[in-house]
Amino acid sequence: MLPIFAIFAPDMGRIIAIDYGRKRTGIAVTDKLQMIANGLTTVPGEEVVRYLTNYLSNESVDLFVVGYPKQMNNEPSENLKYVEAFVKRLNKSLPDIPVKYCDERFTSVLAHQAMIDGGLKKKKRQDKKLVDEISAVLILQSYLESTKYNG
Questions:
Q1: Distance of CA 109 to the CA centre of its chain
Q2: Which one of 10, 35, 53, 129 is least enclosed by Cβ atoms within 10 Å?
Q3: Which strands, in side-by-side order, build the sheet including 37-44?
Q4: What is the spatial distance between Cα 4 and Cα 19, in angstroms, rounded to a whole number?
């Protein structure tokens, strides 16, 4: 017998968050109910679209959320041109999945703090791949919270 929530659960795809970087890109994903954000992986920047294409062969995805790089004064950062070029490649390769931006300010700082709070040793906290993955989780959590309150 199916659990009651399975009977009423809508048929939804996952949401993927991307903390794009030219060297490394952190990727996070929701559960099928789009409620919980989990780290998925970190891949080299040039392999992101290929990784996502492969991921889509096994999972349904409704939306990509890409971190929007801003400076403290709310102006776009220098990295924005690379993020926008990546989003163009993503849209060209996977045109059926919409892309939304989400402010990524403070995600690296918050990722480091989460690692400290989680009791990770200094050596593990220096793992840039892990920082990027956690940053993607924070971008995804921020997006989920914003949709929760803004509909």
A1: 16
A2: 10
A3: 37-44, 24-30, 14-19, 61-68, 99-103
A4: 35
Q: Contact 111/28 with Cβ under 8 angstroms? A: no
Q: DSSP class of residue 45? A: G
By the 10 Å C-beta count (0-12 exposed, 13-18 middle, 19+ buried), 87 is classed as: middle
Question: Rounded to the nearest 10 degrees, what angle do helices 107-117 and 128-150 cross at?
Answer: 110
Please state, in angstroms and rounded to a whole number, the distance separating the CA atoms of residues 123 and 81: 32
Q: Whole-prediction pTM value? A: 0.82
Distance between CA atoms of residues 73 and 138, nearest Å? 21
> What element of type H or E holds 6?
helix 4-8
Q: How far apart are CA 122 and CA 119, in angstroms?
A: 9
Chain segment 78-130, per-residue pLDDT in tens: 889 999 999 999 999 999 999 999 987 666 666 556 656 667 676 665 667 77
Q: What angle do CA 40, 38, 48 make, to 5 degrees?
A: 30
